[in-house]
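Sample A.
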Amino acid sequence: MDRKDLNIAGRLGAAAMGTSMTPIISILIFLIGLVALVLTPREENPVIDVPAANVIVRMQGASPEEVQNLIVRPLEMVLGEMTGVDHTYGTAMDSMGVVTVMFKVGEDKEASLVKLYDRMMHNLDRIPPGASQPLIKPLDVDDVPVSVITLSTPAMDGLALKRLAERVREQLIPLKGVSVADIVGGRDREVRIDLDPARMTAYGITLDQLHQVLAAANSGGPVGDLVGENHVTKVWLDGYLKSAQDVGRLIVGEADGKAVYLRDIASVVDGPAEVEQYHRIGFGAADKKGFGEEERPAVSIALAKKRGTNAVFVTERINKKLESLKGDLIPDNVQVTITRDSGNLANAAVNMLIEHLGIAIVSVIIIMLLFLGWREAAIVTMNIPLILFIVLAIGLLADQTINRITLFALILSLGLLVDDAIVVIENIHRHLHHGAKSLQDKAELIIRATNETGKPTIIATIAVILAFIPMAFVTGMMGPYMAPIPFNAPIAMAASLVIAYMFTPWIAQRWLPCRMVEPTMEEEDEKTTDWVHRTYMKLATPLIEKRGIRSLFWLIVLLLFAFSMWEPAWQFVRPAGINGPLTAGTVELKMLPKGNKNTFNITIDMPEGTTLEETDGVTRQIADIVRVNPMVTDYEAYVGQAGPIDFNGMLRGALFRNSPYQAELRVNLVDKQERSIHSDQIVLQLRKALAPIIAAHPRASIKLVEDPPGPPVRATLLGEIYGPDYATQRAIAAQVKKRFAATYDVTDIDDSVGEAQTQLTIVVDKEKASRLGVATRQVELALKDFLGGYNAGAIHVDASRHPVMLHVQLPKKLRATSDDLSRIYVSGKSGPVQLSSIATVRKTTARLPIFSKDSHPVVYVTAEPKIGSQVYPLLDMDSHIDGSQIAPGERLKTGGMHFTDAVPDDTFGYQMLWDGEMRLTLDVFRDLGAAFIVGLILIYLLMVAYYGEFILPMLVMAPTALTLIGIFPGHWITGQPFTATSMIGMIALAGIVVRNSLLLIDFILDYRRQGYDVKTAVLEAGAVRARPILLTALAVIAGTSIMISDPVFGGLGVSMAFGTLAATVLTLFIIPLIYYLWQRNTPWPSDDGAQCNTI
């Protein structure tokens, strides 16, 4: 065969067959791939970069309304003007405002933060007088801990545990890859001065006098130099307080001619700080050793990793170092519990998926063995590791990580990437089966077979790549989450094409046998007419020849299509209403199903004003129920403080959960590989078990928060209420909550309004105070010192790893009621003045915070679905809420149910916009739908360019809709909901279907060029291509079926497996049938030189 007549595939195959470099290149690819597999960082999920920061401004004494008008709204307007900002969120509270700036996903983190700092510096003049300098606190996903180590023992108090944790942290921070290391829990050392108000009154000592004494007594440092006799001597003042004894010996006044020492009016104690939070660890029923023991005081060390490092290696180093510290730095009576190990989690997830990938590869090999000879199957198998290693190597160069999505992309690609090799080897097998005259003739046959499949295979592969590429433009957090699929799948397809045309011919030439004779026509017919060929001819011939059978076939296809579309639609149109239990035969629609996790969180929000002890009591009640669940290994209680943050908690504002009325339980479960029950079922069990406690505390908000399977949102069901009057917005929220509560499958209902608390307002009689020589500022400082205490500096201790604060306070028992305020004295011009003589105490209602989004005041109402999709309860609630009356002549409108973000219209009326997972769902399905359409358009344009006409490409793409006949029934059969991952499978199927159609059409055209009539051409083309098409389909089904059991990506596996099955079977008959009906009366042109161009 003249080399000039070869296309790219033929020339590449001929070149590879004629050089000894081909095996060397394959060995090189193999080695590079192994290096990439080891060096590429591993993570459970892709990193989602969402640059964000909190801007905090304090303004003492300002009401939430003042803070909103003077600080929050101006800041939101200024910061929202920056390019790259997605949303701003404001919170106006008493004396403080917080504006959270969320940049768009994918914005450069450092550039965004620099931009934010620059904008703040340029607008400092907008900060009102009396307000503090803005504090900017970045929210960095890289600061989320990958390892949490909990130290616990009943033999140590919080101070000793924290000291131990600090020493352990010092050993862990230098480890390679470790970044931020925080300590959660424990108590700091301090010198505490517990004042005795009665003694202070007796001696005539006031709080402001004490301020002055402590400030004046704790001073020192370098004061200068003495220069003389050619020598400089440094002079140092050693006036610092160094112990509790030093503090107690301070003279604070005089009475009856005698000195009054500090120890005379207060007890001075060097020890742990007063309890302001609790951190404990408890062990569940799954921990046979620890179960039954009392909860232990604990301190946790939370360690993050540096960006770009391998979480597996970092946590392995941490765990190895911990083992070396046990029995040495860490005493034997201290238990070390790894309560978070993201590296191990990532490694387990990756290893499991690598195992699944191996199972899928073995399944594909078995299919090859059944349809082809063992040699041909081995050749196809050799292509797989080379392709995967190329993908991993390119991923390493592109700073990709190996994560669950990466491996799912490879599993998804597996059936596709062997397709090129199958097509090539099957055609080589068919040609060699005819026999050759010589070894030279064998090489020519292989080149001819390779060249013959070149044009359609290259175009078909490009078509599949075009189906994936638009997915790279999905916006929002789902974009980077799903990015490994449009990155890895096209690379795998391109690599498979190169490998198929380089290595397959080279190996086939040396390995596949061939008869060295010219067969007779009868032998050729007998050899080539295999069982697939015969079966296809028996089925397809009546379909082509008999009109009645054709009509019945079209009717069956139409009914199957109608049935498949009815499955997801029935829930929306059924007489019983959209919400409620799913009807049998219905396919559920949702964003992503819940993942099977090894941990979840229980958040507790008691009414504001609840004491730390009462919050702790409720937390213990909940823990007692949690610990008896057989699937719980351990749990960590954080009362009055936030636990180690995770990505979900970071975006939900968990960093601010540090009030006495707030708590959380981090519950760890038996590893999912070792239990048969799904984590959401465990949560459901505990939700029922906790129902009595939740009912006993109706004013509290107790939520069971599961880690989301994909990008986190503020809440799954989230309503944002806008309007011109904030008090009315709060009232509307109460009505909306009632509708939420009345809706099936809705739980954990909450709002941002909060509960109004009674507060004591102290009003100073300024005239009387002025006469007595007392300033209002004195009263303010005295009250702060009395109620909260204050730090009067620090004592100097060389061995301490953190400042030992000098804390002045009244004991808790002396500051419990309003009557205790009478104990406060301030200095007047004639001596101590009792506060009650110049001020009155009134009971008032505390002012509630004001929230805003993008400068619009907003009230949030949140909830979670118990077990099902958020779509149905949300649509049900929307039908009741939209247009509902909120006041005479005033109705509430709803919005946010379209594919574009809705802008609040709150100037004159009231509106509720849906956000949360519904917004994410609409955005994702909009983007994936657009990607699907764009992919089809690109494929169509490719077909037009290839065939040089407009009608034939439509025929090639016609079976795309046939995938639905398999997709929705497949979801129904497997009980899987139709999710975003199902949609990804649907997009990928478009390329597969077009690929099969293209190969069929090309062979039909080939037969027609050889002079066959239309009927013979379509039947022979279908029969000849049936085996490689079925092989490809079975490879896709075998490769992707392993995903069906995955709780998150099961939809992708179902779409690929069932969609491929239905589309392949129907395509093999529909394409020849449509072409026959279209061209049966059209003669083939005598001059076919204008047909498709050579590639």
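Sample B, a different protein:
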Amino acid sequence: MRHRNNMNLCSQGYRLTCLGIILMLCFHSPAYGQTTTNKILFDHYGPAQGFKSAQALSIVKAGNGFVWIGTEQGLVRYDGHNFKTYRSDPFNPETISSNYIRYITEDKHGRLWLATTPTLNVFDPKNEKAGLIRYMNPDQNEVDIEAFAFKYEVDKDMMWVTTNHGLMYTHGKKIQLNREYISALPVDNTFRTIQIDANGVFWLAGTHGLYRYDPFTCDVKIFHRPGENPDIPDDDGFMSSYLDESGILWVGNWDYGIMRFDTKTFEKQNYFFADPTKMQNGVLSINKALTAGEENLIWLGTTDGVKTFNKQNHTFNRYSTNDLHDLFGVQGAGFCFQPTESEGLWIGTYNGLHRYDPNKQNIRELTIPFSNSVKDWLISDIIFEPSSVHDSIIWFSIPYNGIFRYDLIHNRFVDIPDKLKKFCTPGINPYTLFVDSENVLWLSTIEHGIVCYNLDLKKLIIPEIKTDNKEKPRILEIIEDEKGNIWLGSLSGLYTYDKEENLIIPVPEIKNYLLKNKKSLYSFILTSDPNGKLWMVTVSDNKANDIVFSYEPVTKKIIAHPQNDFKPLKILSVIQGIHCFADDQLMITSFNGFCMMKITGDSASFTLYDSYNDKPLGVFSDIVTDNSGNIWMSSDVGVTRFDLITNTITNYTNYNSSIGRTHRPDLSFSKKTNTLYIGQDRSINMIDLNKIKFAKPETLILSDLKILNYEVPSIPESEETIELSYQQNTFHFEFSNLSFTNSMENKYKYILGDENDNWTNMDNNMLNFNNLGYGKYVLKVEAENSFGLKSQNQFLLYIHIHPPFWRTWWFNTLIICAASFVIYSIFRYRDIQRQKLEKLRHSIARDLHDDMGSTLSHIRILSEREAMRSKNITPYKNISDKTAEVMNNMSEIIWSINPKNDSFKNIVRKLQEFAIDSLEPLNINVRFDIDDIPDSIKLSPEDRRHFYLIFKEAINNAAKYSKATETKFTVKIVGKNLQTEFIDNGVGFDPLLITRGNGLKNMENRAGQLGGKINITTGTNGTAVSLIFKK
């Protein structure tokens, strides 16, 4: 009778929030007889990871790669890095109508169907808008409906919805709800789950029972749980279901566990995870397991937490925990599951979002059954007995606590041979263990030195050690080269083993070399290459310069590579290990990363790895090579895998895996089984490299985009173009490679611009650009997941930021046209004015010539006539001369006004005529030296007059005062200047005699008006007048 009132409340339409309250109370009920037999590392998502909601009520992995979570706080999207929440806004009809989302499913059109209590919504992730779905009832009224479960038939594109108005469906892209009328079912019968079998038969489960509905025959059958009490309403209490591939329907009950129902034979059987008379056996969700090897398991979300149920042996495993920091358990009552092939099983509970990631289960833990009193026993020096099957018999040491032999198959200690026991007993402090190719076990301890035991012959061998002093060497490392020679590294030099003499002897060449060069005798970091050459690391006395050196046993040749001579070695600082992984290549580990050393003859080159994707690498120590050639190194936080082909680094740390917390653990590798063994505190971690799982590379997408002053209509896909104005030039990008395994270690890099630009590593998946200039940009982004695998694509986005209108070609063209028009108008106006002025000058010249000229000619004629009649001719002659002079001046004025004479060439020609007319009658020879003057050189009327009168004055002065016999008139074009000169060979003149009239001052003033410079020189050898001005 427990919880019966709660069942009635639910059947009366109370919201599922009541269920949440009940689950919270029930979660604290004790579980009975459930132990976890298979340890699983879970991922947990809460406020620290960005998941702000308390409950994950439903989950779906959408076709675009996003994970969508229905919560009590709204719809949440997760891209592997960030959670984005979509909440209800009562003032915006394009948002979800309620924040409490019980169920989610996706159709083939990419739409999300949401059971948003107490309504039904459809959400479009492309434009991030939601719509409320209503039902048109028989009265032709639209009513809200409350959805409880969905079932989507992909091939038919048909969505089935169980609602408070019965079973409904819609077909195709257009959403129009239709009711499936089932006469045998009451309208108010609400179903919590729906399944459709291979024959198209519906299986509907709810509080009233399990219904079989055949839509082809309209036949309905009802089934109840075993032990159902017909006198109690809603005693079935079915809440969840899952139909497996064999046709078995698994139905979860509110109180009575899980029911197995055969849809072919109708046989049924109930299973409980606890005593139902003492504890609620609520199963709220059921789903299949996708991980290989878990085919017989189904996952259950129960009121007692998350569990699995084995369909073969009918046993439950509980994965619940109350510890917030427990990575191997899940908190809260289980609400939902979403299995995916790429990232495993998503789990929603009353206490948040979780995930079972198969890619993080690569590490198995073998707990060694030491006594409970044993603490901090660190396992190291794991070696394998070659004769054991699958390397199942191992030896290992515990510092200061002895040497042990262990059976991995039966998980128990194995007896140590009697002859060896005293050398392995607790209290013994071992240095190292080694098994050679002849199956001889080598033990090095503080107490007994070197002890050997032939595992095949069961023979104890104690080699004699030859040394220069009484103190026995501390052998810290033992190796065997390709030729079977045994080499022993110690704190006092290198030793080798003489099998015939059963004698361990020092290698004098090494010791002498180290002492001679003042180096430490430490020679325990060593390896051998396939050619039999030994490689060692030692330090100088002041420990400031580690030395990597090689030793050729045959030739005794030693070649040193000091840290100070090689920058990569210097950066590495304190070297921790050396390992040969190829004929001519070695790996060196240190406190500051690692490097690869390539040998070419006696020289070496180094490739340094002190950082990876701009993040510093830490301390590395032990080194092994697996059967695929990959390098494994122990680190401060676990182990690191280095892929020699792709040069990618994968870290297995106590932050992202189930590896132990030992710093720089001891590594051993079994070639037989291709398994890596990692020594931990009282346990051994194992990685089976034949079964190791890596997260597959997914598609790189743009998950979010924000642009200042721009509302992004939809997130662009790769190779799309976005057109923006110049004010929309500040960007915030969020990318995702949709790889959820250790997503914090996903790496991104980008190029903005030319293909030849260098890639820039991103700190995370976000990218910001502020105030980009206008133009066209190409943004390229690449990503790799936490295993170093590149995403399937390179994301490309073409960005076109349009310039402001004043920087556009059409605006510039308009401005040029406008400026050209203004300039043209100005020049056109000036040209028109010039033409008007020329017409006026023509008119004035014509009028002066015609009117004034004829009048003066008439006066001159009359004067000359009267002079011929009169005896006193002097007055008339003066009148005639003055009239002639006026006419001559008038002729010059008319000449200067006439626009035809504007060219400089005509001015020079006029001066030539004047010089000839003025000087040749006086028997003064005139020579001209004049350049070819272009017609394009013109002077304004004012400048023309100044130029003409300057040299007219010079010619008049020569005619009146010089008494010259020779004159020369020169006109030269020098660059942008006109250089004119008039020279005579006369007696010169006194400037004081020509200060009036057109004298020197007038010449200088006119030169100034021309913007030129005049120079007048005179003397007994003649006079020169020179004028320079711009043409």
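Observation for Sample B: The domain at 701-798 is CATH 2.60.40.10 (Immunoglobulin-like).
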